[in-house]
Amino acid sequence: MVKLSWWKWIFILLMPYVILMGFLVPLGQGITELSPYVVYPLKTNKLDIVGYNTRFTEGQSIRAWLKQGDYHIEADNIIVRDERHASLIFTIPGFPDTSKNDGDLSLVMDTPDGPLVLPSAVNLAAVKYPDSLALISSQKWSTNKLAVRAESNFNFPFRNILGETIRNTYFHVPLWFAMILLFFISVLKSIRYLQKKQIEDDAKAESFVLIGVLFGILGTVTGSIWAKFTWGSFWSFDVKQNMAAISLLIYGGYFIIRNSLQDPDAKARVSGVYNVFAFVLLIPLIFIIPRRYDSLHPGNGGNPALGSQDLDNTMRIVFYPAVIAYMICGIWIAQLRYRIKLIYNNIY
Amino acid sequence: MILLSKLSAVIWMLDVDFLRSTGKIYTVALVALVVWIAVLVYLLRLEKWVKSIEDQIKSK
Q1: In this complex, is the C-beta atom of B41 within 8 Å of any C-beta atom belonging to chain A?
Q2: Which of A104, A130, A142, A311 has the greatest CB tally within 10 Å of its CB?
Q3: What are phi and psi of A53, to 5 degrees?
Q4: Per the CB < 8 Å rule, is B57 touching A348?
């Protein structure tokens, strides 16, 4: 067996953990289908739902609410057909908030396993009715705190549209984190070369840029595959997709410059300066510009993606080790590459 | 099954969820593990080879 540095062992131990946890932890409960899409005030509405990983049983204490802002109304009755199918009967007394008289209502359910949420589940039809009718129903919109039991099992959140593909968070996103780290290390080596003029630093810089571009291409490809299943097409000209592609093309220019020069010192100097420029461009392209625009990517259109809305706490215990594992993997591969490069170029 | 589900959260994971009930998620996890093991073996062999050449150079 080969003697390995301590940090390589971290990668060897973390990766099976990430793979096993990433695939085998079940998802929480969710609602995949709901019909009809419109509910009417002053009427009894019957909503049929199909759940995911739900275990509805007759006689269980399940409750359901339709919620708009601070107001919610409880279901009169819940008819359970089987573990995944149920019908919810709502009598809607009128509009909750007289300032806006229609809009989307969210569905919140409380089951023994924990809460179920479907945001923007139904649309409350803006039907005109005389004010005298508004008080007839016995149900009233309430602003009391919803009594929902806590999630009792360890699972990943079920998000609409994403479903099981949320597991891709552990395999697609860390590629980008690792790419940024590799480009950062490469720019440090380039600057070091420009200061000290030792050719080893240039070899290291080139290796790290190459592996960074590799991870970037993998990230783009995996992201496109994920987008095909969730956003509908491989390339949506989403701002983050565009900016990532532009950054990769800029780093592709690094290799073109290197190949155009023969003298190793000139090669190292010019490509070192180009590397600094490329990294300086990377920061606004990938971090700043996507946050200024609405985007299909979670966490854009204002907020970074690692906030509490986008990344559940149960996901963090697999996501952060995955990021560390991918970073170490990238550094290991790049290190192997420049060691071989140094041997072949007789630099030792 | 219902009795089992009344126990702690970890034991609930043994209960069958929808995707696991089709058995296909185990195939996916196994494929991912196999791919990763292949990458790891390749990296380790590379390490061994580079180490041997570096040792040769050092000993000269």
Answers
A1: no
A2: A311
A3: 60, 25
A4: yes
Residue given tokens 């589940």 in the structure block? A121
A-chain residue closest to B11, CA distance = A153
The pLDDT, as a whole number, for residue A255 is 96
Q: Say yes or no: B55 contacts chain A, CB-CB below 8 A.
A: no
> What are A217-239's pLDDT values in tens digits?
999 999 999 999 888 889 989 88
> What whole-number distance in Å separates Cα of residue A28 and Cα of residue A98?
35
In this complex, is the C-beta atom of A27 within 8 Å of any C-beta atom belonging to chain B?
A: yes
Per the prediction, chain A carries an average pLDDT of 86
Q: Determine whether A6 is exposed, middle or buried from the number of CB atoms within 10 Å of its CB (0-12, 13-18, 19+).
A: exposed
Is A307 near chain B, with CB under 8 Å?
no
What are the tokens at A332? 């290991």
Return phi, psi of residue A146, to 5°. Answer: -75, 130
Of A155-159, A179-183, A241-245, B13-17, where does mean pLDDT reach its minimum?
B13-17
Q: Cβ distance A296 to A238 under 8 Å?
A: yes
The pLDDT of residue B4 is 42
Gap between the Cα atoms of A186 and A304, Å rounded: 25
CA angle at A275 for the pair A273 and A277, rounded to the nearest 5°: 75
C-beta atoms of B17 and A26 within 8 A: yes
Is the sign of the CA dihedral A155, A159, A163, A167 positive or negative?
negative
Quote the CA–CA distance of A323 and A18 in Å, as a whole number: 10
Query: Using one digit for the tens of pLDDT, what is the confidence trace for A96-136?
Result: 665 555 678 889 998 888 888 888 888 888 777 766 665 55
Q: Which residue has the higher pLDDT, B27 or A274?
A: A274
Pick the closest to residue A31 from A125, A116, A137 (CA basis). A116
Torsion, Cα of B1, B6, B7, B12 (10° steps): 60
ipTM confidence score? 0.75
